[in-house]
């Protein structure tokens, strides 16, 4: 997403936050933006905020102020609705771990096809990292999830080819190689199966 679209996404997500937290849904459709934006979730919000922070200087002053407002609103949500917010983080983390595991299984079965979709699928892995960070900030028991991530990362590394950053250069400062190594390269395609 472009920065202005990403800001709209976080603004509309925060406007829907009360309803989202009251629902049983992990992924919330933002209306009337459902054709434009992905479903809203805590992980999606955290990723967008991180991306926006990296591109802060590209935003006009009013948008920078709005970004700070949204970050303040999120801090208030953590304080005012701690239990409901924690439950969303836990459920989404579990859901994203399942999705990432399924993607890696799909890759191991059909490497050439699945490797092509890696740049789109890697958003799942980014959200997992940010949700783990959020879970730990909230004092949740994150060790089982962290162990699962480590096992999935071992699978990923077996097929990994280091390379250039997958996203726009401006985002590198928010996603450094040391922590987000899976954004710096690709999965093997045809060569994974010796073809």
- Strand sequence of the main sheet, in spatial order? 1-2
Largest sheet: number of strands, sense, barrel closure? 2 strands, antiparallel
Which runs of at least 5 residues are low in confidence (pLDDT < 50)? none
Strand element count: 2
Question: From the helix content, strand content and strand pairing, which structural class follows?
Answer: mainly alpha
Secondary structure: helix percent = 55-70%
Measure the end-to-end span: 35 Å
Q: Mean pLDDT across all residues, rounded?
A: 93
Radius of gyration: 17 Å
Shape: globular
Tally of helical segments: 8
* SSE string, helices as H and strands as E: HHHHHHHHEE
- Percentage of residues in strands: 5-15%
Secondary-structure blueprint of this entry?
Blueprint: H1 3-15, H2 17-22, H3 42-54, H4 61-80, H5 82-109, H6 111-116, H7 118-137, H8 143-157, E1 160-165, E2 184-187
Antiparallel strand pairs: 1-2
Describe the structure.
This protein is mainly α and 195 residues long. The chain has helices spanning 3-15, 17-22, 42-54, 61-80, 82-109, 111-116, 118-137, 143-157; strands at 160-165, 184-187. A two-stranded antiparallel ribbon has the order 1-2. The longest helix has 28 residues, at 82-109. The mean pLDDT is 93.
Features:
two-stranded antiparallel sheet, 2 strands
Short description:
This protein has 195 residues and is mainly α. It is built from 8 helices and 2 strands. A two-stranded antiparallel sheet has the order 1-2.
């Amino acid at each position: 997403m472009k920065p202005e679209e990403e800001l709209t996404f976080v603004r509309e997500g925060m406007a829907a936050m009360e309803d989202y937290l009251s629902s049983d849904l992990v992924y919330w459709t933002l209306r009337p933006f459902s054709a434009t934006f992905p479903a809203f979730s805590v992980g999606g919000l955290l990723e967008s905020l991180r991306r926006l922070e990296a591109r802060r200087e590209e935003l006009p002053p009013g948008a920078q102020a709005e970004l700070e407002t949204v970050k303040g609103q999120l801090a208030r949500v953590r304080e005012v609705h701690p239990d409901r917010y924690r439950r969303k983080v836990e459920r989404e983390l579990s859901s994203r771990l399942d999705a990432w595991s399924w993607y890696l299984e799909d890759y191991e079965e059909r490497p050439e096809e699945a490797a092509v979709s890696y740049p789109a699928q890697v958003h799942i892995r980014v959200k997992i990292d940010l949700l783990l960070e959020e879970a730990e900030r909230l004092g949740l028991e994150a060790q089982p999830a962290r162990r699962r991530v480590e096992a999935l990362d071992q699978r990923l590394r077996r097929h990994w080819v280091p390379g250039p950053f997958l996203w726009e250069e401006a985002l590198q400062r928010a996603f450094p190689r040391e922590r987000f190594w899976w954004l710096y390269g690709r999965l093997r395609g045809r060569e994974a199966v010796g073809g």
